[in-house]
Amino acid sequence: MKRKNSGDGWAAYAYLSPALISIAILSLFPIGYTVYIAFTNFNLNHFKNYEFVGFANFKYVITGPFKEIFLSVFLWTLAFAVLSTILCYVVGLILAVLLNNKNMWETNIYRAILIIPWALPGTIAVLAWSGLLNETYGGLNMILSMLNISPRPWMTDPNWARAGIIIANLWLGYPFMMNVCLGGLQAIPPEMYEVADLDGATWWQKLTRITIPMIMPSSLPLLVSTFAYNFNNFGTAYLIMQGMPPRPDTQFAGYTDILLTSSYKMTMQFNRYDLGAALSVIIFLIVAVISIINMRATHAFEEVD
After folding, report:
1. Side-chain half-sphere CA neighbours of 211 within 13 A
2. CA 9 to CA 241: how far, in whole Å?
3. pLDDT tens-digit series, residues 80-117
4. Of 91, 175, 176, 205, which has the fewest Cβ atoms less than 10 A away?
């Protein structure tokens, strides 16, 4: 038996070292430093003479003045993530079913048009929606006026502001789900639909008994990861509204702020790095717990025999 050369192992680590060093510097170190700051009083008044305070920051976030809106912000964050994920998937699935119809002409042109939101740079697309939702000269209110519908207070009413953010996130997210569903549909044997046609199945029966059950195993892992992404979707949640409209009871969060944007405001606007870091750790724990529950409930990421 040939003895393994120990130098091969060092050579492998040498080849991997650029990636390992990059991961350590760009990912592991910031995460570790955030956790470290969460247990200190590092803020505007304690830049140099900060000290460890244990779980005081976590206690402040959960039971201090921020507790009055913590549950409200958390529920809105959860609703935003769930609605964005489900709506993007439903719209993507419907469009994928339509585009997968062999009797439809010029499907490639339709695919190219529908994939435009995905092709645009995310920041530019999000900022464009900030203009579209403007109450005075925004495109959406102009269209509503042309249809003799009164303009909507997208920037000043909490409910309409939240609806506007979900609409924008739906427009940005459905192309990804559409492509995922198209890949799953093309993997379904066409003979199954032919047999269903011979049995007299309706389009709804084929959709619910063939299409959805066949593509769901490949979609569930992506739905779980998409939910985790939307839970921390800083770009859509902050760049469009900046958390507006404001809450009268706190300065740390507006009506459209999610937990992550609240952490950002604590850190960048009010220099409460300690509270922002503590809230970031709490967000991580919440996302981890919800993702584990989703994966176990949906059996996503499990190996199939």
Report:
1. 23
2. 52
3. 999 999 999 999 999 988 888 777 778 888 888 888 88
4. 205
State the pTM of this model: 0.82
58-298 has CATH 1.20.140.10 classification: no
Residue pair 254/76 in contact (Cβ under 8 Å)? The answer is: no
Strand partners, 52: 40
Contacts of 156 (CB under 8 A, 6+ apart): 135, 244, 245
Which of these ranges, 96-110, 126-140, 273-287, has the smallest mean pLDDT? 96-110
Q: State how far the Cα of 135 lies from the Cα of 151, in Å rounded to an integer.
A: 7
- Average of per-residue pLDDT across 51-56: 87
Mean pLDDT, rounded, for 264-276: 85
CA dihedral sign of residues 208, 209, 213, 215: negative
Contact present, 51 and 41 (Cβ < 8 Å):
yes
Q: Distance between terminal CA atoms of the chain?
A: 34
Domain ranges for the chain: 58-298
